[in-house]
Amino acid sequence: MIELKNIGVQFSGRDILKDVSVMFNAGEIVGLVAPNGTGKSTLMNVIMNYINPISGKVILNDELEYTNKKNEVKMHQLVSMMPDQSDLYNQISGKEHLKIYSSMWNSNPKLIDSTIQELGMESYINKNTGTYSLGMRQRLCFAMQVVSDTQVMLMDEVMNGLDPTHVELISQILVKKKSEGKTVIVASHLLENLEKYADRIFFMKNGELILVNAISPGFEEREITTVRISEMTDSIKGEISKEFPETKVRSLPNGATLLDVRGYDSGELGNIVEFLKENQITEFSFGKVTLNDLYSMYYQEV
Amino acid sequence: MWAYFKFEFFQFIRNKKNIAIYVILLYFACYYALKIVPTYNPIEKVDVSEIEARYLPRAEFLKNVEIDKGTHYLTSYAVAIFSEWNEYDKARLDALKKHNMKEYAEATSKWYKYSDEMIFPDVMNVFYYNPGYYTYGNNYAKKDGHYAYLYSASRYKGYTEGKSNLSINVFEERTALQTLQRLLDSYLPLILIVSCILFTVDIVLKDRRNPTLLQGLPLSDWRKLIIKGLVSLLGSLIAIIPLSIGLLIIGGRNGFGAFDLPVPIYSFGKDLFSNILMWDYLVQNMLFIVFWFLFIISLLLLVSVLLKNEFVNLLVGSMFVIAEFIYFERGLGAVRNIQWYPTSYVQVGQVISGYRNYLYGSEALTFGSGLTVMGLCTCIFLFFTFLISNQKKFKLL
Amino acid sequence: MWKILKTFFVIEKSNKKNIFSCLFVAVFVFSLIFFLKNMDIGNSIKEKSDEYQSISTALGKFQNIDATDSGNGSDLYKNLVRQQQAVSKQKMALKMNLPKVFLDTAIDLANLRAKAFDMEGFDDVAIYLPSKIDNQLDSVFYQYIKKIGMPLSIDSLSYFQFLPYLFGVLGSFWFIFMSIYSCGIMIEEFQHTSLIKGYPITFDKYVLAKCISSMLIVGVFLLELFVCSLPLIYFKGLGNPSYPIAIFNGIFEVYPIYQYIGISILYMICISIFTILLSIILNVLLKNMYLTLFLELLLYIFPMLFPNMISLVPFNPFNYLNFPNLLNGQMIEFAKPVVLTSTHGLIYIGMSITIMIVSVKLFLTTGRLKKV
């Protein structure tokens, strides 16, 4: 597990991270969600010690800190970050990249072949990476990190340029890594996908990390808390407020409307369905707030 | 096209490496003008004491010698030749006393011609050229002297016939234009060619750092390459600007000289010099150097698309510059057709002035043959570049 | 350490630069053989005739007078006349194949010349005669040959005779070659920062490994020098590995060829490490391989542009990078002579290497690497 304590980062006088304290546990997938330029990568760079924070520290397993170069090496042995695709060596093969990572981290060499197989890279793994497509390179970068087999894995935009099949494939591997007791920290814009397997999701705003649960209590609960209507006119909204004065109605910048139905029994829910049907509204769902909605709620406020 | 040219050119000008090259050239130009030029000490000087040291004893000898039957044949010989020789020396001394440059030039020209006629055929080694040529380890002192004397004779003849202002600085080739001429005869072409190599070395391969930005431009690879070549050519020509600052400094100190000063050109077949004018010589050199630029640029474009490695560009380019040092040998031209190797023309000024022909013992290294060979090679390189860049599988980046 | 080395092997073996550098070294060796053959270096008869001519020119500065001991000519004049006689004698000895006569005369000649340096009016004829250092080198060389009783070798192209020549020529260029080879050493790595930054290894170890892998390639270059010269054994014979070479190392002495080669290799290895480290540091500071190259070359020629700096800063390692000049004693021919010895050179270069390693360890970290 890895702990951040009062991390502060400033770039040219602007706070990028403000007094961030958080703990990432073993056996957990953590999602970081935020618009571009809000400090996700900065946070990861701080965890890797690529950026020196002006305050605070990173503590690994309650004992290791970036106090000297020796410790940095020890920590890098346990914490890895996914490489950028543009940094691959074009003149050597994908397999050799994997071998490099495996030997650099002294991991089990068997992982190389098993990872190639899991990610379906057999057909091209022996070709020079100069010939790879964007998705192939992305998979290779992911595979390299998997092969390094570190305790904490940081992945920035891991799903970039991947088709839905591979997104699913990689997600499964992430879940597997989690079950092996690893801490996986993922920054991604594929919100639905993240919602599915991340144990905790953080938003970032104004240099702070905000646990999604704190904005939307019950986000992680397994019960019906919300009725989500993707499109609705303002007049109907007004009628709902009249019809169900106790129900909180919330309109989102992305056009959706949320009805807070926490604690409603099936009768009350039935009434709502009936009302919606009467008003010719066909696209609605029961469930909880989606990450998409939260994102919209949180970041797209006008 | 034009937009791409501008885009490439701005990249070229902003390239740290290229700026560094211009700065270094400027530095060396100033260093040369301020530190090396003042120490220039030509062997063929305007030196009254030197002339007197030769003239007075001989005059004394001629006055006192008595020729009879028993006179040693060398003495008779000396009497026979010294009188004419001394006439010229006397004329030189008188002209210098009167500060009459024209007369000095005329007498000096005759003096050099006569001296060479006396010294060169002399197999008994009783006469020597200026001792400056016979330094320790110089195995070709006599040949050097022969060339220098004929060269000087022709040069002074040119001064006599020409209309330009004469001065000691002109006689000793110290003015800015003459310094330029001397430099073209030595390292200047090499410096320009090396600069051109350094300018061109990354012009294609720098784009590999941001391929997605440039791959999609609506221009064929071949056109891109040609434009890159043109940018590099322009950049190499701009290198003349920092160098000319050195020239201005020299001009300020020693005078600029004139564009109608004579430059002697050697022709091997006749073992004779003929003069052309300075501007003619400079234009020929400029043209030749442009051909060298084209040669180097097309070569490096070809290597760039073939091997795609900057380091290799640098190695291949510099091999063409140093190759001649390896095979050069005096008189080699008689045995081998060195005029077909483009590398034989690397000393541009010497090729034009005929000195290379003198060294190689060949008459084939000429301005015309040089342009032909360089031009042909350029065409061949460009042709192959064209073929490669038009291949279906070829990727520029 | 081993794991990062392994990584470098994988990467370096696919690097075109190494292949072409090896090719270049081979081409260089063959060109040099060709050049030596062309130049007819080692043809003593030819060299002696030219020497004769030079002395004649020097004598031309004097009036022909009685040159016997009792004659009224100046000491220098008499000395030069005897030098001329000695050179003629050597020429004859060569033609008649009398090595012993040649050797004795060579020693006499060197002694004569040694005396001439202090005579009045020597400066006027200095350019026609070998320099003091050359003469002293000649002197120790011939005396050694005589003492040992070794036959004079005149074939400069036999294997062992060729090698010191090769190392001497290459040694002058070695720093330039190494700077061209290594000027982009880290820039290439900077294209892959996101990989390198995360490696569980400190930057100094990384640099060390980079040095070691580059040095292995340098080892290949050095090996190549020997291998490419091998054909000479077939054409010109093996030569004698303990044949002497006169050198200057504080004092004038002779080294057998193998020792000369040994020193050369030692120097070349030190220069290589020095250059590679310098390139690494300059790469990190300047982030541009050509600026690195230009700066290195400027530092190299700086002592030549401003020779006074050599006596002012004798510990500047760049004074010593042209080690063949050092061993020739050419460094003590300046107006203000400075005794630069090869041992000092090794010490200063070694110290610079240590300083650079320490500064890499102290100041540079992988985390600060920026992509270029």
From TrEMBL, chain A:
<dbReference type="GO" id="GO:0016887">
    <property type="term" value="F:ATP hydrolysis activity"/>
</dbReference>
<keyword id="KW-0067">ATP-binding</keyword>
<protein>
    <submittedName>
        <fullName>ABC transporter ATPase</fullName>
    </submittedName>
</protein>
<keyword id="KW-0547">Nucleotide-binding</keyword>
<dbReference type="InterPro" id="IPR003593">
    <property type="entry name" value="AAA+_ATPase"/>
</dbReference>
<feature type="domain" description="ABC transporter">
    <location>
        <begin position="2"/>
        <end position="231"/>
    </location>
</feature>
<dbReference type="InterPro" id="IPR003439">
    <property type="entry name" value="ABC_transporter-like_ATP-bd"/>
</dbReference>
<dbReference type="InterPro" id="IPR027417">
    <property type="entry name" value="P-loop_NTPase"/>
</dbReference>
<dbReference type="InterPro" id="IPR051782">
    <property type="entry name" value="ABC_Transporter_VariousFunc"/>
</dbReference>
<dbReference type="GO" id="GO:0005524">
    <property type="term" value="F:ATP binding"/>
</dbReference>
<dbReference type="Pfam" id="PF00005">
    <property type="entry name" value="ABC_tran"/>
</dbReference>
<keyword id="KW-0813">Transport</keyword>
<dbReference type="InterPro" id="IPR017871">
    <property type="entry name" value="ABC_transporter-like_CS"/>
</dbReference>
From TrEMBL, chain B:
<keyword id="KW-0812">Transmembrane</keyword>
<keyword id="KW-1133">Transmembrane helix</keyword>
<protein>
    <submittedName>
        <fullName>Uncharacterized protein</fullName>
    </submittedName>
</protein>
<feature type="transmembrane region" description="Helical">
    <location>
        <begin position="225"/>
        <end position="250"/>
    </location>
</feature>
<feature type="transmembrane region" description="Helical">
    <location>
        <begin position="20"/>
        <end position="37"/>
    </location>
</feature>
<feature type="transmembrane region" description="Helical">
    <location>
        <begin position="311"/>
        <end position="328"/>
    </location>
</feature>
<feature type="transmembrane region" description="Helical">
    <location>
        <begin position="281"/>
        <end position="304"/>
    </location>
</feature>
<feature type="transmembrane region" description="Helical">
    <location>
        <begin position="364"/>
        <end position="388"/>
    </location>
</feature>
<keyword id="KW-0472">Membrane</keyword>
<feature type="transmembrane region" description="Helical">
    <location>
        <begin position="187"/>
        <end position="205"/>
    </location>
</feature>
Automatic annotation (TrEMBL), chain C:
<keyword id="KW-0812">Transmembrane</keyword>
<feature type="transmembrane region" description="Helical">
    <location>
        <begin position="207"/>
        <end position="234"/>
    </location>
</feature>
<protein>
    <submittedName>
        <fullName>Uncharacterized protein</fullName>
    </submittedName>
</protein>
<feature type="transmembrane region" description="Helical">
    <location>
        <begin position="20"/>
        <end position="36"/>
    </location>
</feature>
<feature type="transmembrane region" description="Helical">
    <location>
        <begin position="345"/>
        <end position="364"/>
    </location>
</feature>
<feature type="transmembrane region" description="Helical">
    <location>
        <begin position="297"/>
        <end position="315"/>
    </location>
</feature>
<keyword id="KW-0472">Membrane</keyword>
<keyword id="KW-1133">Transmembrane helix</keyword>
<feature type="transmembrane region" description="Helical">
    <location>
        <begin position="257"/>
        <end position="285"/>
    </location>
</feature>
<feature type="transmembrane region" description="Helical">
    <location>
        <begin position="162"/>
        <end position="187"/>
    </location>
</feature>
